[in-house]
């Protein structure tokens, strides 16, 4: 496999670097989800990036993308991490659900706002009784004429507090087996009957919410594809949650590692032999992860995304344990790295837990029987 840039990719990369050099400074600090000001700065950053043509570039040009191969998405994430810029908006999976399954009218109506970052979106899948076992979800959509009437509850919905739209997975076909009874609706978050309640994360981030739907009326024209194909769309989306974005993640881990190595090299932190060995193992593992993530770009339909998630989780969590041990006393509140350490704990949960990813690898790679 040749990972060198083609001349076109190299030109694209150079253009992005030049743009970042001219635009990054005002966004270098103060973004995030801990306060209203940080959120406003984050949304401004997303719009600036989209306005410059560096968001969802693999989506079709007619809807606001650039119709470029996935590798360009990876380059964007890699360059943002290299420059220590805030991350790109995490919208690729939602954009692909709509672009690859919705009819033309819905695509034309909602994709330009999503891709241009002029509208904010959230993903309403998990429920209090349906996380790993997502197909057991109970939020329902009852068809009445040319509308669906939605009732139920979602939880752990990232970005729901400020989202204009929700891509909602719900049960519409009561008489079908559970996987075939699901559909996906695009829901206007300002609709009557929607209540959002904020959930603050352990690290102080205010990006989570639980969302309640009480008799919410949604036009049937907002159905993504046909009724009953919600599970297929959800599985398609999961393959876009990882891959290109992880290129940025690897880059960010590289910065954390470099800072830790510098602390030891300059004597700011003392590291005994076992701790030094763990630091070296982190360096090797981050390199391995880089190649695994590159592989998952060309093996999207396979299990590469699960392997990638398992590796990222293990490596990131161990890296932050090492950084904590280097600090001697562990982390203190207010230290940015404490924030990142807490976030690393979430890696083993979102987008499919560690245990579920292991089951996928056990069954589909090793061919083991179901446990
Ligand atoms: C940072 C973050 C962002 C998120 N964003 C969103 C979002 O935007 N939208 C959304 O819909 N959801 C979101 N989630 C929710 C996430 O998808 C769920 O938390 C996840 O799927 C796990 O579901 P659960 O929390 O219900 O845990 P459960 O499924 O109840 O699992 C609890 C524990 O049991 C284990 N377990 C469950 N079933 C099995 C099994 N069959 N075999 C072995 N072990 C098992 C799990 O691995 C876990 O350790 C987010 C979560 C996090 C942490």
Automatic annotation (TrEMBL):
A Pfam family per the record: Acyl-CoA_dh_M
The keyword Flavoprotein is assigned to this record: yes
Acyl-CoA dehydrogenase/oxidase N-terminal domain location: 7-115
Range of residues in the leader sequence: none
GO molecular function annotations of the record: flavin adenine dinucleotide binding; oxidoreductase activity, acting on the CH-CH group of donors
Domain Acyl-CoA dehydrogenase/oxidase C-terminal: 230-366
Family stated for the protein in its record: Belongs to the acyl-CoA dehydrogenase family.
Protein name per UniProt: Alkylation response protein AidB-like acyl-CoA dehydrogenase
Organism annotation: Actinophytocola xinjiangensis
Taxonomy of the source species: Bacteria, Bacillati, Actinomycetota, Actinomycetes, Pseudonocardiales
